[in-house]
Design brief:
The protein is mainly α and 408 residues long. Helix content is 53%, strand content 5%. The chain folds into two domains: 205 residues, no CATH class; 186 residues, no CATH class.
């Protein structure tokens, strides 16, 4: 059952991004699972899943490929590529940007979710062509997310078919989950890349302008989520391997082991800092300046005043399950910056979600539950909560509720 979709239709907390990643129980109108072998077991009952070893060169060779899924993809390959190319052309008729390319892929990736939301029916079958577009986009999405992460770190990535295909090889993309190589022949992959990057395809179609608006809002959410994740990783490293680590005093062996195990998963060197100047230019200018300041740890002191006061008081209060023996003013400032940045990103991502609801005709007052694709789960936040002894509320402020970990 797609809980996210059911929430949207029953007016519980939801978001478009959460639904996109929560369709593992859905079938298309030809009876194939939208998620193929990642689908729920019940959705794969009596579905043909012929597996063969991949004949194509490179990392895929010899790995299992889902021939049944590839057969369906081949049947709808031309019309899906025509849509992809048309989106790219209509989004921008001049030279494309990586922003346009991401939106083009997101348009197809979100296709099944948008279709079901527009139908207002969780039991409807998604058209096979829409499902195939989702499957093609799923392989490309990982490449585009890597591109935008590199851009967020200040790198310049040449935009061409060849550079895109180099990234496909470098990131082992289009191989599929669970060793399931089903992206097609090298010729098919190149043809799809040409449609995506250059906007060229055999057939010419028109894309509903509403699709452009929806995809660009989703793509902007994803870009912001990348900046948030990079920022969050910096704070996690500072706590568990960096400047604050040696001063942490866990109250029991369980927490000590938890810290040590989490630290092992981090690199020995500090993660790179996001380049705030690469934030999307389309953002509201005032908000963009606020985000730049937040990412650069140079926010207006007045914005940090409340969080700084709260964090300072909590750090000097006895009884935390993870004590701190260092300079509390430095850690309190780190907490204040983190919470301010968290709220800025969450607020803008939620605003974009409300905009998406407007495009789709859904009520705006229903609570927003952002999906992990656009708002990666905070990794540093749980540690700050344990150190401060308080949980964060839905409004992004410390609520006063105690963390619940026994000290024995």
């Amino acid at each position: 059952m797609s809980k996210s979709l059911d929430n949207a239709l029953s007016e519980d907390a939801w978001s478009v991004s959460a639904i996109i990643a929560d369709l593992n129980d859905k079938l298309d109108d030809e009876g194939r699972p939208i998620s193929e072998r990642r689908a729920d077991a019940a959705a794969r009952v009596d579905v043909e899943m012929e597996m063969r070893q991949c004949p194509f060169e490179g990392i895929r060779q010899g790995k299992w490929m889902n021939v049944s899924a590839l057969t369906q993809i081949t049947n709808y390959y031309k019309p899906v590529l025509a849509e992809m190319a048309a989106f790219r052309r209509q989004a921008k008729n001049t030279d494309p940007t990586w922003d346009d390319i991401l939106a083009s892929v997101v348009d197809l990736l979100a296709g099944p979710a948008i279709y079901l939301l527009q139908k207002r029916n969780s039991k409807d079958k998604v058209p096979a062509q829409v499902a195939v577009g989702h499957k093609l986009a799923a392989g490309m999405f990982g490449v585009l997310r890597e591109v935008h992460q590199r851009v967020a770190l200040g790198n310049t990535i040449p935009l061409s078919v060849d550079s895109f295909l180099e990234l496909v090889d470098e990131t082992d993309a289009l191989v599929g989950a669970a060793m399931e190589a089903c992206a097609g022949s090298p010729a098919m992959i190149r043809k799809a890349s040409v449609a995506l990057i250059e906007g060229h395809a055999d057939d010419q179609v028109e894309i509903d302008p509403l699709r452009l608006d929806i995809a660009h809002d989703l793509a902007l959410q994803i870009q912001l989520g990348i900046f948030w994740k990079l920022y969050d990783q910096q704070h996690l490293w500072s706590l568990l391997r960096g400047e604050f680590k040696e001063q942490l005093v866990p109250c029991n062996q369980f927490l000590q082991s938890k810290i040590e195990n989490a630290a092992k998963d981090l690199d020995s060197y500090a993660p790179p800092k996001p380049d705030s100047s690469r934030l999307p230019a389309i953002l509201d200018p005032t908000l963009r300046l606020q985000l730049i300041a937040a990412l650069d740890v140079d926010s207006d002191p007045q914005q940090l005043k409340e969080d700084l006061h709260t964090a300072t008081n909590l750090l000097n209060e006895p009884g935390s399950v993870i004590g701190y023996n260092g300079d509390t003013s430095s850690l309190a400032l780190s907490v204040a910056n983190y919470l301010n940045t968290y709220r800025l990103f969450k607020t803008e991502l939620s605003r974009l979600e409300q905009q998406l609801r407007g495009h789709l005709g859904f009520a705006s007052e229903i609570p927003v539950q952002l999906g992990g694709v656009v708002f990666p789960i905070p990794q540093a936040l749980p540690w700050y909560e344990l150190i401060l002894g308080r949980r964060l509320g839905e409004d992004g402020h410390l609520t006063g509720k105690n963390t619940k970990i026994a000290k024995k």
